[in-house]
């Protein structure tokens, strides 16, 4: 019988084991480090695969990552012959959409200002803008960005997105490529980052890019900490060029104790919780991909190693 090895959070692994027993009795589920005979292992799901993967599991057919990003992986240690598949599932994307919506609403409904007012005991209503007056711009047009944009469009926000290749989505002004960045930023007052971390995007959220946003803009950073230059963020908040930031990811995670961003009144930090894969949905997504692999169909979430995402 082919075997599936799980190497990630052990508590979740127990849930995966129960789900595999119910939904895929023809695949033997094993949890790292109890991998049994390595020759049986055809599939693996891991946050970090073991070094010398091909020597450890010579018959491995598919490597699944248990997250949506692959920036933590050393691609050179994963044989080219083994397809790498990242986590794509609708519930995962919906979790991200909820987080982004909440962050945008915080800005739209002046929650940072009211928190400051409350701290000073001030009762001062502010005018309410309609959602259509709030210009949200999303960096990235992938699985998570599209789900977030879908919800933002439903609520009536003025939405735009920027990506590498051209996309179309109803209710979203789509920008593509480096030459379109300036125009995208100029019309964006809430910038949401949902890019993968690659050589091209590392450090992208620096002073040069952020200062092209209109004065008073806000940042929602939900992708990877290393996209953002924390020093640039602090300077732009201090000058008032940026009015607030929401950070679900930082570099390092967590920020060191005493880092000024922890206590900044215009910054909200959450511990990388924007979304997480639920075992029941993740297992279905993995089993569907195993089926597609055997039927010769393209798998959902197959990583293009040249692009790096
Ligand atoms: P996808 O791979 O589906 O989408 C990536 C998007 O980014 C694509 O639209 C792609 O453009 C665009 N892109 C990539 N590189 C560039 C570039 N150099 N210039 C312009 N656009 C670029 O990713 P997901 O939506 O699934 O996930 C996005 C990221 O979200 C993950 O990589 C991860 O970092 C982060 N994440 C955060 C979580 C959290 O809890 N905070 C949880 C899960 C993920 P194109 O369409 O043209 O290819």
From TrEMBL:
GO terms for molecular function: NAD binding; oxidoreductase activity. The keyword Oxidoreductase applies. The keyword NAD applies. It comes from the Bacteria. Keywords: NAD, Oxidoreductase. Pfam families: 2-Hacid_dh_C. Residues 103-274 form the D-isomer specific 2-hydroxyacid dehydrogenase NAD-binding domain. SUPFAM superfamilies: Formate/glycerate dehydrogenase catalytic domain-like (SSF52283), NAD(P)-binding Rossmann-fold domains (SSF51735). This is Glyoxylate/hydroxypyruvate reductase A.
């Amino acid at each position: 019988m082919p075997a599936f090895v799980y190497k990630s959070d052990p508590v979740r692994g127990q849930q995966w084991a129960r789900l595999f027993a119910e939904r895929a009795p023809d695949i033997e589920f094993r949890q790292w480090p109890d991998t049994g005979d390595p020759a049986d292992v055809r599939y693996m799901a891991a946050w970090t695969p073991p070094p010398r993967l091909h020597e450890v599991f010579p018959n491995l057919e598919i490597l699944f990552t248990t997250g949506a990003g692959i920036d933590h992986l050393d691609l050179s240690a994963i044989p080219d012959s083994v397809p790498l598949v990242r986590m794509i599932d609708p519930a995962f994307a919906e979790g991200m959409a909820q987080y982004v919506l909440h962050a945008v609403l915080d800005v739209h409904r002046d929650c940072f200002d009211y928190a400051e007012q409350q701290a000073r005991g001030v009762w001062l209503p502010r005018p309410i803008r309609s959602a259509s007056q709030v210009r949200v711009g999303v960096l990235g047009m992938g699985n998570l960005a599209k789900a977030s944009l879908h919800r933002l469009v439903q609520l009536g926000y003025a939405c735009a997105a920027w990506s590498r290749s051209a996309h179309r989505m109803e209710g979203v002004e789509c920008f593509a490529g480096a030459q379109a960045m300036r125009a995208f930023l100029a019309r964006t007052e809430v910038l949401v980052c949902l890019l993968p971390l690659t050589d091209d995007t590392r450090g992208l959220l620096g002073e040069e890019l952020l200062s092209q946003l209109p004065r008073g803009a806000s940042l929602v950073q939900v992708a990877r900490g290393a996209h953002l230059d924390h020093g640039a963020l602090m300077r732009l908040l201090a000058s008032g060029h940026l009015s607030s930031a929401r950070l679900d990811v930082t570099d390092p995670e967590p920020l060191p104790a005493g880092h000024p961003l922890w206590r900044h009144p215009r910054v909200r930090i959450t511990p990388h919780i924007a979304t997480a894969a639920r075992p029941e949905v993740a297992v279905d997504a993995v089993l569907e991909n195993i089926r597609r692999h055997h039927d010769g169909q393209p798998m959902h979430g197959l990583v293009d190693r040249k692009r790096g995402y």
